[in-house]
Specification:
Layout: H1 2-44, H2 48-51, H3 67-74, H4 77-108, H5 114-123, H6 133-142, H7 149-153, H8 160-171, H9 175-183, H10 188-199, H11 201-216, H12 220-225, H13 234-238, H14 241-244, H15 249-280
Helix pairs in contact: 1-15, 3-15, 4-8, 4-11, 8-11, 9-10, 11-15
Length: 285
């Protein structure tokens, strides 16, 4: 009897120890992920000499809060912000519209070669982005869109990954709903707009958040296509500190902190829909 009672008490104890160990490991992992952000904020409050001090300092001795207004006025960051907002807005809208239409076709419409064409789309995800940079630039140059909004936006408004994400979610919606709508005389576009899209808000919110983050921090393509300072988005503008101020790291980190704040704000507002969309998006074929 005593041995059995010890066994009963031992199981919750072992479970509590394992749970506590798991939480400690997760906490250490979270701190590891936060260290780059802590370093970024700390560097933004240092002077140029303090950044290169040895041993390295995690916190500045005398925080220089004036780094923020000085960094934001040294370059036309108001224009950079406007450009990033325009590019991000068009890209997110394009992803939601075009990816959802393509996903609806692949998930709900029956046409010859549908599945094979979808595999071709998925194979595009395996191509490194740097391989198609030159063909994309030659196309934009031939159209005369270099250093224009349409040049930066036109090749970014469709995402193969977004099509895949929404298609998988659309497959989880019961077909009985659209069958009933067809009996009532609804067209395919009506079914897509009034049934599929309202039921897919979590997946659409997930795609919107991911597209917003990717578009906001997009650097390589705008760097290649834009020429003038007035057309540069925020990420490209921040990199200008390397040329104008000989790698002024405090200014660059101050600008980076300001640039990342909108993303954090948007994520906290939409994290419920983001997590729900990820968990509800199955792998149904």
């Amino acid at each position: 009897m005593f041995y059995s009672f010890s066994q009963v008490r031992g199981k919750p104890l072992r479970k509590a120890i394992l749970t506590g160990t798991l939480y400690i490991l997760l906490l250490l992992l979270a701190l590891t992920m936060l260290l780059p952000f802590i370093w970024m904020v700390s560097t933004s409050l240092m002077d140029e000499l303090e950044v290169f001090s040895y041993p390295p300092k995690l916190l500045p001795d005398n925080p220089r809060w004036q780094n923020y207004p000085e960094a934001l006025t040294a370059l036309p960051f108001d224009r950079f912000f406007i450009n990033s907002i325009i590019l991000t807005g068009f890209n997110v809208a394009g992803h939601l519209i075009f990816c959802s239409m393509a996903a609806y076709a692949f998930a709900r419409l029956n046409f010859p070669g549908r599945d094979k064409l979808f595999i071709v789309f998925l194979s595009a995800m395996m191509i490194p982005i740097v391989i198609i940079l030159i063909p994309r630039f030659l196309l934009i140059h031939a159209l005369g869109w270099v250093d224009t909004y349409q040049g930066v936006i036109s090749t970014e408004i469709v995402s193969v990954w977004g099509i895949f994400l929404l298609r998988q979610f659309f497959l989880s919606i019961p077909r009985e709903l659209e069958d009933a709508a067809r009996i009532d005389g609804a067209s395919e576009f009506t079914i897509y707009r009034r049934i599929i899209l309202p039921l897919s808000k979590p997946a659409l919110a997930t795609l919107a958040v991911i597209s917003l983050v990717d578009s906001w921090k997009n650097f390589l393509w705008p760097l290649i296509v834009t020429r003038s300072v007035e057309m540069r988005p925020l990420e490209v503008g921040i990199s200008s500190f390397h040329n104008l101020y000989m790698s002024n790291w405090p200014y660059q980190m101050a600008a980076a902190v300001v640039a990342v704040v909108p993303l954090i704000f948007v994520f906290f507002l939409t994290q419920k829909y983001f997590i729900r969309g990820i968990t509800m998006t199955g792998l149904k074929g």
